[in-house]
Design goal:
Elements lengths: L6 H18 L6 H8 L3 H7 L3 H22 L9 H12 L5 H15 L9 H4 L1 H11 L4 H25 L2 H26 L1
Helix pairs in contact: 1-4, 1-6, 5-10, 8-9, 9-10
Length: 197
């Protein structure tokens, strides 16, 4: 009779896999090199995940959980800080050298998903990103319809700026544009809240 996978050990393993992928990328993921890197046998991986597809789904879900938890833990998320301030604080956190590997992994996932290579594996991180930020906007008094529209636009602009920075390394130019985006987001939020009031 097969042993049931321990949920705590599985969670620890998923965190190690996310960290591995942040350093090595997703496109070349293979069970044997992954197991060797983790100091485990492939049997340990298949004990927790039926196959590579199951491992991939679970890992992307864990990346999504971690990323949202990191964002929610940033100062001001649940307070009175403006959305533009939170956007800038998020950028500053993600642009730290130790956090850039995760940012690169997320953009790799976006690219693979856009190319149709992750069918069935697109995490909420990508699929529901606008809804996640729209919740923050609603807490700031933005009406439902406006919240989703502003969130979609802000997320897309932010992602484009981050890819620009990761590609060119031109932090000064990109962050000047980011500051403009933050100011615009605050204007949009204020205008939408006024309309709702």
């Amino acid at each position: 009779m097969a042993r049931t996978a321990d949920p705590h050990r599985r969670a620890e393993l998923l965190d190690q896999i996310v960290d591995y992928l942040a350093g090595h990328g997703l496109s070349t993921l293979s069970m044997r090199p992954l197991a060797q890197h983790l100091g485990k046998s492939t049997r340990v991986l298949t004990h927790h995940f039926a196959d590579k597809e199951a491992l991939l789904s679970a890992t992307m879900e864990r990346l999504d959980e971690r990323h949202r938890a990191w964002l929610r833990s940033l100062p001001g998320w649940s307070g009175a800080d403006s959305v533009g301030t939170i956007v800038r604080r998020t950028w500053d956190w993600q642009a730290r050298e130790e956090n850039l590997p995760v940012a690169r992994l997320i953009h790799e996932i976006e690219g693979l998903a856009a190319a149709g290579k992750l069918a069935g594996h697109v995490p909420r991180l990508l699929a529901d990103r606008s809804e996640f930020v729209a919740g923050l906007l609603r807490e700031r008094g933005v009406p439902e319809a406006d919240a989703l529209r502003i969130s979609t636009l802000a997320n897309s602009a932010y992602t484009g700026l981050q890819i620009d920075y990761l590609t060119t390394g031109d932090r000064e130019r990109v962050e000047a544009a980011l500051d403009q985006l933050c100011a615009l987001v605050d204007e949009w939020v204020a205008a939408a809240a006024r309309t709702a009031g």
